[in-house]
Amino acid sequence: MAVADAKSSVPQAAASAERHARVLPPTSLQPEQQQQQQQQQQQQQQQQQQQQQQQQQQQPERQEEEEDAPVEHVEQDVVLAKGPFGLGIYFTARSDGAAVVDPSVPFYRLPDDSMAPGEASGVIRAGDRLVALQGVDVQSWSFARVVEALRGTPSGDVVLRFHRPPASAEPTAGGVDAAPTASKPRRWSSFFERAQPKDAPRDDALLDLELQLRRVERELERERKCRFLAERKNVLYRNALRALGDENAQLRYRSLRDEQRRAELQRERDALQLSI
User: Fold this and answer.
1) Which pTM value belongs to this model?
2) Nearest-angstrom CA–CA distance, 85 and 110
3) Helix, strand, or coil here: 89?
4) How crowded is residue 130: how many other Cβ atoms within 10 Å of its Cβ?
5) How far does the chain reach from its first CA to its final CA, in angstroms?
6) Is 76 left (phi over 0), alpha (psi -120 to 50) or beta?
7) Secondary structure of 72-83 in HEC code, one letter for each residue
8) What are the phi and psi torsion angles at 137 (to 5°)?
C-alpha cells in the first residue's frame, strides 16, 4: 500500500510541477507590462504638460498681437430722404462736442406712428458719430453749427456719413451725456455704501425708488424732445402757411393785373373799330 501511494504521488507531483511551470511565466510578465503601461502613461502626461505649457506661452503672445493690432473703425454713408418732418434722428453732444446719435432716444416717429427715414434705414445705431454732411466734413464743427446745418438742409436726398467705433468702445448714455451720468453713479455708490444686511427691506425699497426715478427721467427726456419736435413742426406749418399766403397774394395780384390789361386791350380795340 505504501509503495502504491508513493507511485501515485509521483505523477501528482509532476503534474503540479507542470501546472506551476505553466502558470509562473505569465505572472512573471505582468509586472513588466505594468511598468510599460506606467511609462507610457507618464510619457503621455509629460506630452500633455508640454503642450499646455506651449499653449500658455502662446496665449500672452496672441494677446499682445491682438492688442497691438489696429482697431478697425467703420464709416458708412447713408442716404436719407428728408421730408417735412426732418430725418427722424435725435442728435446729442458728446463730451468732446461731437454730434452723435442719442443713445437713450435715437429716433422719433412720424405723426402717423410710422418710422421716419433715420430709423427706417436700418443702418444707423445709437452712438454713431456724424462726421460728414452732404460730403462736407463736420468733425471740427461745433454741435450747434452741426444742428443748424442739419436743419438748414433742404428737403430731398441727404447724404450723412457716420463713424461707428468698435464694439468695445461704443459710447453709452453715460459716455455721451456727462452731467446726468456724473450724478447717477454717485447716487448708486452712496446707496451701496450705506446699505446694511439688516436693512434689506428698506434697501429694496430704495432700489425700487431709484429705478422709478431713472424711468421718470427717461420719460421726461423723451417728453422734452417730443415737445421740441412739436414746436419745430408748428414752426414749419406756420412757415408753410405763410409761404402759401404770399404765393396766393401774388397770384391774385397777377390775375388782377391780367384783367386790367385785358380790359385796356378791349377798350383800345373798341376805339379802333369806332374810328374805322
Assistant:
1) 0.40
2) 7
3) strand
4) 23
5) 188
6) beta
7) CCEEEEEEEEEE
8) -70, 125
Burial of 206 (0-12, 13-18, 19+ CB in 10 A): middle
The CB-based long-range contact list for 169-177 (8 Å cut-off, 24+ gap) reads 169/71, 170/127, 171/94, 171/100, 171/103, 171/127, 172/103, 172/127, 173/103, 173/104, 175/94, 175/95, 175/103, 175/127, 176/92, 176/93, 176/94, 176/95, 176/100, 176/102, 176/103, 176/127, 177/92, 177/104
239, 151 Cβ separation under 8 angstroms: no
What are 209's three cell numbers? Answer: 425708488
Rounded CA gap, 235 and 215, in Å?
30
User: Which tens digit of pLDDT belongs to each residue from 95-151?
Assistant: 888 999 988 888 988 888 889 899 999 999 999 999 999 999 999 999 989 999 998
**CA separation for the pair 123, 78 (Å, rounded):** 8
**Which alpha helices (DSSP H) does 69-157 contain, by range?**
117-121, 143-152
